[in-house]
Amino acid sequence: MAQVDRQQWDVVVVGAGGAGLRAAIEARERGARTAVICKSLFGKAHTVMAEGGIAASMGNVNSADNWQVHFRDTMRGGKFLNQWRMAELHAKEAPDRVWELETWGALFDRTPDGKISQRNFGGHEYPRLAHVGDRTGLELIRTLQQKIVQLQQQDFKESGDHEARLKIFQECTVTRVLKDGDKVAGVFCYERESGRFFVLEAPAVVLATGGIGKSFKTTSNSWEYTGDGHALALLAGAPLLNMEFIQFHPTGMVWPPSVKGILVTESVRGDGGVLRNSEGKRFMFDYVPSVFKEKYAETEEEGDRWYEDQEHNRRPPELLPRDEVARAINSEVKAGRGSPHGGVFLDVSSRLPAEVIKRKLPSMYHQFKELADVDITAEPMEVGPTCHYVMGGIAVDSDTAATVGVPGLFAAGEVAGGMHGSNRLGGNSLSDLLVFGRRAGWHAAEHAAAHAATADRPAVDQAQVDAAAAEALAPFHAEDGAENPYTLHQELQQSMNDLVGIIRREGEMQQALGRLRALRVRAARAGVEGHRQFNPGWHLALDLRNMLLVSECVAKAALERTESRGGHTREDCPSMEREWRPVNLVCHPVDPVPADPAADRIRLVRRRTEPIRPDLLALFEKEELVKYLAEEELYE
Amino acid sequence: MTATGTGYDARFRIWRGDAEGGELRDFTVEVHEGEVVLDIVHRLQATQAADLAVRWNCKAGKCGSCSAEINGRPRLMCMTRMSTFSREETITITPLRAFPVVRDLVTDVSFNYTKAREVPAFVPPQGLAPGEYRMQQVDVDRSQEFRKCIECFLCQDTCHVVRDHEENKAAFAGPRFLMRVAELDMHPLDAAESEGLDRKRTAQEEHGLGYCNITKCCTEVCPEGIKITDNALIPLKERAVDRKYDPLVWLGSKISRRRD
Question: Which domains can be identified in chain B, with CATH numbers?
């Protein structure tokens, strides 16, 4: 029997990025004793990497903007597969969430009349992104962090204990959501520093763990993005939605190799940067798809005029949604018109004066100077697609962020699915974190209030704790011929990159499923040396379970969806098919879990989406809807 | 495309141990073109020392996790390019000296989180609803510079007030959190005074500003290039001076004119 410490909380939030911290603030302000648990230090979450801004239709720069326009842009970007109620709530509530940050001390860049400035971004009709230079994510995380400290200071005044009602367990990992019957009862965790196990008992758990990019070789994501929340939900019995949709950001660094995949912000293009191939041609003009034809400039001259006069000109095609730009770059490279290191050129040096570049894009200037020895004010950057974001995720109720079928389990941020449909617009991620982080914290607190005080508070039984401890310790007891977790991870990343990457084919994805099966068998024998104190090899061995589960979801769903839409491109099914519009692909865990590691873990189910509410459909022209909606939907 | 053709073997000395003690260990490891020190540490983990403890996250100089001392100088491992060293050089990596070691290159940085809690938060102005805040860019520029801070704590590590003087830690917030006081003090809408909170005075009396003798070590190690001494600490000292005479302010105002 494993002796582990147990603590009781009302709400446990897993993850301390934007969504997790916003959820924690909300839960605590609504009276719930709230614990946050995160793998990194407090304030280091991957949210800091977000550069461009927070999309919110405040209308500070163009007063024609409003939530309806934002909703429309979001649905178009997601190719109408978005969970429309989420897109509606998101567009309506984003401005309040941004303004609230100001009251917590955030300092956004300003307009001449002193309001929050807003910048242009791909897929957004009006300048909409509240920003701080190109370090908006850092401002967001720091503001939320400092708000949490303020709440802790308040608690200290009242109780003499900073952590009485809101505590951060930093550098800890959750390996299991624990349950009492079908209800959430807590989480099983280990301290990364000591390897010590502990249990946080709580009737409500919010998963806010971010994405899955570490399953791919070229990614902008940090080591934390191992699909933990996705896997925790599955293992607790909650299904995932539309996992085939993965956003490859068009502009990641391609050189030098050690920084391959690191993001080059879209603001470079929003502020005037252009994409060229090795022949010097601005190739994006050749890649405007028919659904977007009327919205984008047809000549370089018109595109260039747009930066000065957006009322009378159409935007340049460099600002198409990310999936379109990523595919275009991929095609150029394949056609032999790429840059020396296998990307294309992104040039801002010939477009803006050096001092303007340094002022508007300080982090990018810094990043290229320091990491690639490239001066972006004097020469073009080399960029190419990088795995950036997963649109798919845990299936949730739009209003409450509650997962399906596991009472007490909530999800918000990148780990939740639905909001972005098949493709996310830049800037919609930070606003998503705030809007749904708050909603998850709110409803988790309510759920906890209904269960925490009563006799039916869910209990954690010892058998589950013992099982979780045994599972976590398995890598130390590997037999002879143990597999190196680093090797397994590299092989997984290579397979996903090559076979389920930006362009997909049926045969390759079947091959991928075969490789995943073989990797599962080998991962069951993953072994590590040393002890439990700060042992990164051990941590990786445990993360492999999550990455393999999530990768299986991605490959299965991608194989099933025989069309191309947003972040899912099938070379063998190249067009978007209207009859696929109302179809969600849902990944359920195989239950009971098969003993044989070679057996599939995931059961894929097709589910029809809820019809889009008529007043929301009425925001679009009939001619546009005809391009997206399935035949039968048009007559409903 | 690989860079293997340009690879070479580099010699590293890395401190390994824990709170009980430890020692520098020698490693020889392959280096490829364009790599940074953190890449090499990762290669060591994957090939020679699976349990080598290191803290890191974004690997792009934005999160401030991978702070260490490289050849004795506080730096981010992800932003230190291997090309800045000669191939013959042995590169030494040690944990941050000002903080207790947990294991290998990982230190206990809780000092910083304690200090963060001692600085009273932003006080929102009364009578302004969310969405009604109006500030000019020129007025937010100053605080925005300080908010570029990625909390790598290199300035806290290098500051000699605490680097070799454990006894000063209780009374001294360190450059990062004195800068936080300055940031709030310069925030155009911070209403601390309406609550009877004088941030300038607390900088001196509660956060140990007087210990700072403006040697600018913090500014030198800041990976974000924030002018911590010139733009945060000296103005804070100047603002405090009408309440309390500080001879260093005179010196500081001389030095601060040497801006580039």
Answer: 4-107 (3.10.20.30), 110-258 (1.10.1060.10)
